[in-house]
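Note to self: user wants both folds in one dump. Writing first protein now.
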Amino acid sequence: MPVGGAHDHLDVTQHEFSCRFRQVFFDSLTDELADEPDVALGEMDVAGGVAAVAVAFPESGVLFFDVKDPSKPKFLSWYRATKCETVVIDVDCGAYVDLSKDGTVAFLSLQNISVVPGGAPDPGVRPTSETGVEVIDVRDPAAPLLTQTYPVASIGGVHTSQSKIIPEGPTDNGPRAPGEYLFSVANGFGIEVTLVNRPGGVPGLSPVNRIEMDDVHDMFVHNDRLTKRTYMYVAAGFETGFNVYDVTDPAQEELVAEWDITPDCPEDWYSHTIQPVIRKGHRYVTVDAEIFDNGKQSAGQQCGFIAGNGDKPGPLWIVDATDFTKLGPALAQGADDVEALKASSRRALVATWTNPASRPGGNLTFSPHNQQVVGNRIYLSNYHGGIYVLGARAAFRGRNVRPRELGFVLPHGPDGRPIYELNPKPASPFFSAFPPSRPRIWDVRYYKGYVLTADWHGGFYSFQFEGDRRRLQRGR
């Protein structure tokens, strides 16, 4: 993770770093994206042999790939949605894409900070109009079809969405409403819950509930085999570390836990992504913090100096959440009892990982971003810090052992597409204010023994981690 005057973050040839990884596929997408070559690729999902990669900026959309053989992805289509708002505040309007469990429906989260349109649309791209969720029929991923635009009342749109099937099960320990649901972050308001309908196979959404909360970044909805209940784990940005809700009946949610090791400092860590795992009768939660520089922290509320802790290495925490009552929430312990929440949260913390160079995150340069837990391994994207595979076997047994680096790669395919340049510059830059770098990795997905990822402007990759290759050879 080199820095300094002799290092150029934009020079791909200075970033040929890897350990126990081999690249098996790379496509710069220069030809496929020729109509808008400077689009930035964002977050992604994989299901049913289909990979969906969000187009984040300066327009929204989705790229679909056939990954039935993940060592040889095949580009299928480019679904083009709306232009981003680039006049007042430029923001990544293609915020997130989620696939249904069977891979036949894509849910594209759309956001715009202001209502000022981004100018005349390019051919095939709709002008900015609504923010919310676009429901896309991908039964034929080579010909994706918009079936509904579901508007979501919010401040600037929807940042992330996640679909989940709540199964049939016991009702003696609480209400249950089986079905397929979509949980969407309504920026500034909370989480919009909708029911996924498929009349005649055509997907659509209908409203169910609005779960109110001040700040949300991401969530993970999980069918818990310990209690046979469905819980939604919410990475709550600056608001707190994470909250846990029982959403077995999404119309009747119940807050059951909260975790935050610095509840007295609302401007330090920005809780980003989250995932629960069950290991040997215990429940653990992995949660990471996105690191950026948002100016100085407010006086009197400092757990550090920079809002977003850009002067510190970004952490990934592993928390023992087997007993929700031992986590909080603070409100159940007293309206302003932040010390009780801090103490219970610190007791529940099992282990912490930060990058091995102890490199400060900067302004979204070396920052944890998205994670995926597979067995006892954590696949973590790290912006310009690349991709890590972390071994967490000991921590998932409740031991205070830092997850260790099993493999690492900084994708460094040939430099194929230009970095966006906005002209004129927006009045208040957001997306374009982040220092550019090559590569810049938002997301990573393990699929059938391979690691898939997309670089903002570099292209689409398939890698194989040596440990996964050996696992496949053993038939595991």
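First done. Writing the second protein, which came from a different request thread.
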Amino acid sequence: MIFPRVDLLGVNISAINMGQAVSAIESWIGEKQPHYVCVTPAHAVMDCYDNPGLRAIYNASGMTTPDGMAVVWWLRWHGQRQVERVYGPDLMLAVCQRSLETGWRHYFYGGGLGVAVDLARKLQARFPGLQVAGVYSPPFGPVSAEEDRAITAQIVASQADIVWVGLGAPRQEVWMSDHVGWVGAPVLVGVGAAFDFLAGHKRQAPRWIQRSGLEWLFRLVSEPRRLWRRYILGYPRFVVLAGLQAIKERKGKR
């Protein structure tokens, strides 16, 4: 299943909505086609802008979804009116809901100590009958080759259909690129903070704040020490660079 992509600072964003994203995942599982999914807010675009290797990983994905409202607005400005925000936590919930009919098996890889366990428990309570193939929270920092082989074998043995990866960007995207096709599961989805949000370890922004495009401010206030650099330095730079690209594109159409 192929969707159009729109360039944003060198990152080719999939012009999709939630229904299309779930349908694509269903198709890949049914056909056993190995793919990974990058959920992509503005800060991830900036990470890719500064790192050509990471940009190549995003552009090689099965889907690079519009996770932030700024990204959604960019796609709509380019004529993709069907686009909706495909936000990591919402994508996880939508796929879990669909899996009650399909019987997909889920593996949760990532999060801090105990987060993946709490996430699996919360999701099974919300979706009775949800099949959890396994959970694993890797240690903080580099993983040895031996440890990596062991966890890969564990995921293969679990017979998971989907591996949800919550290592945080860009670590999770690098991991997915390195492991797609090697862990048995057809689909790997990097969802970052969705692990903490849906496990109940961090507070999620109210829906109206998410729709307004101000979720970044909510998260900055919630975790200023960790996120100030991303939002105070990164987002103004994103606006300037995206604006310059828009001006260049408009001039090119004349």
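Dump finished. Worth passing along: The chain has one domain: 5-199.
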